[in-house]
Write the structure tokens for this entry.
Amino acid sequence: MTTLKDLFLDVIEDARHVRTWQEAVDLHEHTKILVSDFGKRQGLYSADKRLELIKLCNEALTKVRNVLHHEKIASDVAAAAEARQRHATERAERLEAIDRELAEAVREREALDQNQSRSFPRSPLEGVTGNALTRALESRHEREQER
């Protein structure tokens, strides 16, 4: 027959082998049931045996809570890493879509500029800037006044 002491020792041993959050939760629930059962029946034990079982109970609860805490942290870290990865992927997809739209807009703009340059005659002053433009306009004005 399995004694309550053996059950608490099993819980302590099982706490060393927990690998997932769900295992930790299940072990915690199992431990709470054992503690509750012990609480209901502790009057059946002698003072020395009760003290020994209380120490084992406390040790088991401490180990299980520590495992539960560590597994929760590990679970949260994994979820955060997954969220960061998902966010990075979504951001890369959005940036890629923006780049495609921008490239399309540039192509459309270049096509529009080419069409406009073909439909209008070129200005004799195209490409002339700054002082050269001013001189060209002044000389043109002088020639017109001479006529």
Q: What stands out?
A: The CA atoms of residues 32 and 61 lie 8 Å apart. The chain has a mean pLDDT of 85. The helical segments are 4-15, 21-41, 47-119, 130-146. The first helix runs from residue 4 to 15.
